Amino acid sequence: MAASVWSGYLTFGLISLPVRLYSGARGNHISFHMLHRPDHVRVKQQLVCPEEDKVLGRDEIVKGYEYHKGEYVIVEPDEIKKIEPKTAKAMEILEFVRVEEVDPVYFESSYYLLPEEAGRRPYALLTKVMEESGYAAVAKLTMHNREYTVILRPHRHGLMLHTMYYQDEVRQVEDFGQTAAELHPGELKVAQQFVEALATEWNPAKYHDSFQENLKKLIQARLEGKEVTPVEKPRRMAPPPDLMAALKQSLAQIQATRPNGGIHEAKKLPQAELQASEAKKSPRRRRAA
To answer: In the structure, what pLDDT confidence band is assigned to residue 283 with cuts at 50, 70 and 90?
Structure first.
């Protein structure tokens, strides 16, 4: 099993159980080294003091917080240890919430939470009651020099832990969600058909990083002395002048490749119904047509 990233105690009420955290997901991508172009020798990154024009060793480095331009407060590792909160080794459940009420924008990283041998029974009890109640647990946890709010949720008869962004870390974009537009019944119905035609059950194994796959092909081509085949780039498309016509054409293309639709087979709208919905458009739209 991979090395744990945190170990300590999970507590709820007067119950305490030893647990460990393991990384739940990690990016997987091709990495490149930095080389000197003329001789292809790998270059080194060094820490240099510009004042003394001297390369420094790791033992000569300290952490400093800049409180004025060029002025720093020096902070030693043992000083940071002294101020670690109790959540550095104890994760206390503070409350329970419905997981569907938590906006996914707050989720940061995912971890598997596993019990030590002595904590198996209370871990199983907590997991079972959360599965049956539909609740997730909110707790606090300190790791990597930071205290997190975390969500614990049941998953495959175990508990997953997700670190969360704080409210002040979630960015707000002005006017987001405020874009109003006049929509017509016919457009909504055809758009719903389009969604239903593409609807399916979630299967993450279907999706792949095509850019990473193309990088592998590029590297193999270079190793074999072959030319790199360029990928066809999509054309820049302007917004459709006739939204209904574009929707109907898109739906026809999907129905041609997926004749049985998705989870729910898309029902074809009668032509008369489409024409009736088009007739309900505003006078301005009819004149523009």
So the answer is: very low
